[in-house]
Design brief:
Helix 9 packs antiparallel against helix 10, helix 10 runs antiparallel to helix 11 and helix 11 packs parallel to helix 13. The protein has a domain of 69 residues: Serine Threonine Protein Phosphatase 5, Tetratricopeptide repeat. The chain has 303 residues and is mainly α. The protein is elongated. It contains 17 helices and no strands.
Amino acid sequence: MKNLKLCILFLPLLLSACGGRESAINEKGMTLMNDRQYRAAIDQFSIIINDGTEAWAPYYNRALSYQELDMPDSAIVDFTKSITLNSSCFEAFLNRGIAYFSIRKNEEAIKDFDKAVELQPDNAVGWYNRGNAKADSHDLDGAVDDLSQAISLDTNYAEAYMNRGVIYKITGKHKLAIYDFLEAINCRPDLALAHYNLGFIFYLNQDFEKAIGYCTNALKYEPALSDALVCRALSYSGSGLYEKSIQDFDEAMILIPEMPQLYYDRAMARGRMGDRDGACADLEIALEKGVKEAEELIKLNCK
């Protein structure tokens, strides 16, 4: 689901399952990982691997390092080798699934999450990640079931509430979505996406005051969250606070200059506050960038 914005987490587990010299090198690699020196950590784990080790931990830890460096293909290769050497490691299946998910190989991801859930059915993280992959694969009912199971296992799982709320939001179940977003905020007050999504629902229901408040909270915790900025701009415009609306649209255009709809929306705010020239200039840009609705307004108001 292309526009489904989810909180994505992965579960690290640093392991020492080697002996002698290998153990010392692996420990050094783990220390480097803890210090976020991932490339140096990879070099250490590679020494053990290149010596022909049959220990699975160096492959797993190197895979985690690749994952931290946003190298999912390399991570998948090493997670696969670690699974070959140890087929009962929950974290290896989970993190390989997350690596697959990051490159949109959802079928493979779900298979790995199935195995993770099988290995540790009482671990909420497996259900949570499988729910995310199902949502991205358009299996929204299955996603809700998995996220609900994650919440039943961990009632303070803010991200699970948040992601289930997103599904309820896009399926029009606003009361359920509001409940989930409030629960997410209660569990984790700094979760910007929960504040934004709550604000967006209030915007859709024309409760602009609440929408502005929650979008402002989202921006406090994540100042570059462009969706929250646009939502607040639209809410300001709906409240008649056109100068504030235009200011937010201006900032949003800096963050997402490729979004032509912003010119159209800013034109609406400018027109309502009496800035005909500014509104017409924005409509011309919006039309040039492909916003067809702008054409009729230009004919009516700008010629």
